[in-house]
Write a structure and sequence with these properties.
single chain, mainly alpha, Fumarate Reductase Cytochrome B subunit, two-stranded antiparallel sheet, elongated, cell membrane, Cyt_b561_bac/Ni-Hgenase, transmembrane, Di-haem_cyt_TM, transmembrane helix
C-alpha cells in the first residue's frame, strides 16, 4: 500500500521507555504539586480535608519521584537522550541569544534533538527535585538533624516548591503552544517538517 501524497512523513523522536519515564514522572510531580497546594493553601485544605492522607500521598510521591528516571536507565535510547541534554554547545548559545531577543526565525535558532531552553529546564528541574528530596527527608526524619537544619530545610522546601510550581506552569504552557511537540511525547513520532524546522541539527 502506498502513502497518499498528502500524508505527512514522520520520524521517531522518543522510544516507549522514554515516554513512560516522562508520563510517570509527570504524574508523580503532579501529585506532589497538588498535595502541596492542599497543605499550604487554606481554602484547598478546608475543601479537601483529611490532612494526614494528603501528607502521606505527598511524602510517598516525593520519594518515588526519582524512580522512573532510575528505571529508565535500562533503556539505551533514554541514556542517549540524557547525553544530549547534558551537552551544551555553541549552537545552544546562539539559540539562547535568539530567544532573549525574541527572534523566532528558524534559521536563528539552531537546535539538536533538544533546544537550549529544554536543556536548561531539564537540568534545573533535576537539581530542584534532588534538593526537594533532601530537604523533605530532613523534615520527615526530625530526630536525625538539629532544629536549625530542619528550620532551614523547611524554608528552602517551601520556597523552592513555589518556584517549581511556576516553572512547571511555564513548561506546560510551552507544551500547549506546540501540538506537534506534544504529539511526539504522546506517540513517539513527529512530522519531518516539524523536525526540520524546530530541530534541524538533530534531523541532519
Amino acid at each position: 500500500m502506498s502513502l497518499r501524497a498528502d500524508t505527512p512523513v514522520t520520524v521517531r523522536r522518543f522510544s516507549r521507555a522514554e515516554r513512560w519515564v516522562h508520563r510517570t514522572t509527570a504524574a508523580l510531580m503532579g501529585v506532589c504539586v497538588l498535595t502541596a497546594a492542599c497543605l499550604y493553601v487554606p481554602q484547598l485544605a478546608e475543601l479537601v480535608g483529611r490532612r494526614a492522607l494528603v501528607v502521606t500521598l505527598h511524602i510517598w510521591a516525593g520519594l518515588a519521584l526519582p524512580v522512573p528516571v532510575l528505571a529508565g536507565l535500562v533503556s539505551r535510547a533514554f541514556r542517549a537522550d540524557l547525553g544530549h541534554l547534558n551537552r551544551f554547545g555553541p549552537h545552544d548559545r546562539t539559540w539562547l541569544r535568539a530567544a532573549l531577543h525574541r527572534d523566532k526565525r528558524p534559521a536563528s535558532r539552531p537546535a539538536g534533538k533538544f533546544n537550549a531552553g529544554q536543556k536548561i529546564y531539564a537540568s534545573w528541574i533535576a537539581g530542584a527535585t534532588l534538593v526537594m528530596l533532601g530537604t523533605g527527608l530532613m523534615m520527615w526524619f526530625t530526630h536525625l538533624t538539629p532544629l536549625l537544619w530542619r528550620t532551614s530545610a523547611t524554608f528552602v522546601h517551601d520556597w523552592l516548591a513555589l518556584t517549581i510550581g511556576i516553572v512547571l506552569a511555564g513548561h506546560i504552557g510551552m507544551a500547549l503552544a506546540d501540538p506537534e511537540s506534544r504529539k511526539g511525547m504522546r506517540t513517539g513520532r513527529v512530522t519531518r517538517e516539524w523536525a526540520d524546522r524546530e530541530h534541524p541539527l538533530w534531523r541532519r
